[in-house]
Amino acid sequence: MRPPLSYLRISVTSRCNLRCVHCQPERGEAGADVLSREEIVRFVRLAVECGIEKVRVTGGEPLVRPDIVEIVRDLAALPGLRQLGLTTNGCRLPELAAPLREAGLRRINIGLSALDPAVYERVTRGARAGPLASSRHPALAGLRAAVDAGFDPVKVNVVVMKGVNDDEIASLALLARDDAIEVRFIEYMPFAAEPGMRERYFVPAETVLARLRELGEVEPAAGPRGPASAQRYRIRGFKGTVGLIAPHSAPFCGACNRIRLTAEGRLRACLIDGGEQDVLPLIRRGLDRATMARLLAEAAAKKPAVHTGAFCGQMHRIGG
Length: 320
Prior knowledge:
Layout: E1 7-11, H1 37-49, E2 54-58, H2 68-76, E3 83-88, H3 93-103, E4 107-111, H4 117-123, H5 138-149, E5 154-160, H6 169-173, H7 175-178, E6 182-187, H8 197-201, H9 205-213, E7 218-220, E8 231-235, E9 241-245, E10 258-261, E11 266-270, E12 274-278, H10 280-285, H11 289-302, H12 315-318
Parallel strand pairs: 1-2, 1-10, 2-3, 3-4, 4-5, 5-6, 6-9
Antiparallel strand pairs: 7-8, 8-9, 10-11, 11-12
Helix pairs in contact: 1-2, 1-11, 2-3, 3-5
C-alpha cells in the first residue's frame, strides 16, 4: 500500500541564474516569481494542517528570490512542520548560508554537476567555475559556505550524464571523504520532448556503484531512510556518505509520498508523469483547509503505480 502524502516540494520561482542541460531547454523564457510570499506560506500552512510533515523549497533557483530568507523564516515558524529543506545550485550560498540558517533552515541540498571547470561550464551552459581551488567555482564555494554555516545534513546532488560528467564520479564522491556530507548520484531523466536523450546520457546506478567501489570498501550506511529516498552507502575511511537515486533502473513509485506545487501554481502528483491540476485560481481566491484536503486526496489518487520514464515538463518550473 502506498504511504500517505507527507512531503511537499514547492517551487518558489522558475527563474534561475544557470541553464543546466538536465533542467532547462537551451532556449526559452527566463521564468518568473508567480506566487507571492504570503501565498506560499498560506499554502504550506494549510498543507501541514492536512498531513504534510516535510517541505522542501525548490525552484528554478530559490535563492534568486529577494525575499527567500523571509519565506524560509515564515515557513520554519509554522506549527506542525517537522522538517524544512531547500535545494539550490549553491551560487548564492556564500552570502546567504548564514542568514538562511539564522532564519531556521537546517537541511540543504546543493546541485553540483562537475568539479572540472570546463565541464561545469558545459553542463550549466556558461557558468564560469574558475580554477578548482578558487572560490570562483560557484557550487564549490556554496558547498563550503553551507558546511561552515553548520547545516545538517548537507547533500550534494549530481545528475550523472554519460560522456559529460560520468568520468568525475570518483572525484565527486571524494567530497564526502573529509566532510560529513552526502554525495548523491541521480540517474538522468530525459525530457520527453527530446527523443533519444536517454540513450545519449543515461548511466545506470549500478555503473555508478561499481565506480564507487574503486575508492574502497562500500557498505550500506546505517540510519533512518525515508520510503523513497536514496540508497545510502558508506565508503571505508569517509566521514560522509554516498547515495544512489535510481528512478529508472530501480523505480520507487510505490513508496512515493511526495507532492509538488510548481512555480506556476500547479499541483503535480508525480515528477515524471505529471498529473497536474491548476490550483492558482484557488490560491488567489483564498484556500481553506477543506479544499486543501480535497486537493491532496485528488493528487494522491493520480499518482501512477509506475512512471512511464518519459519526463514531461521543464524541471526549473516543477522543482525537482
